[in-house]
Amino acid sequence: MPNDLFRVAVVGAGETGTPLLRKLLAAPFVELLGVADLDAEAPGMRLASHRGVKTTTDFQELARLGEQLDVLIDVTGVPAVRESLRKAMQETGNHHTVIVHEMVVQLMLSLLNGELVRLKHDTQDY
């Protein structure tokens, strides 16, 4: 059965996450439940906070939302974050939430823009 509303959270609110957040915030069929980034002053964190969306510097806080979260988008580019999110889902028995990798985000943004979008990541470790 198709969703009428996608409950989404995003990990990574810098150069890659911010354009994605703008699109998610503009979509009437998306409820943005939270945004995480190590930098509380990252552009996407400020944008989310300004729009009344919960922000956190602990990405695991988003994983703890459990099955109320449909899609957890990881645009950090950090393999350890992706692995940690997967492990959290397994340990809690959450078989509902889908973790979306930055490569899927790159594909979707490229399709929306009609050309290949290059994702930007810094070297910050989590």
UniProtKB/TrEMBL annotation:
Residues 12-91 form the Aspartate/homoserine dehydrogenase NAD-binding domain. InterPro entries: Asp/hSer_DH_NAD-bd, NAD(P)-bd_dom_sf. Pfam families: NAD_binding_3. GO terms for molecular function: NADP binding; oxidoreductase activity. This is Aspartate/homoserine dehydrogenase NAD-binding domain-containing protein. The lineage of its organism: Bacteria, Pseudomonadati, Pseudomonadota, Alphaproteobacteria, Rhodospirillales.
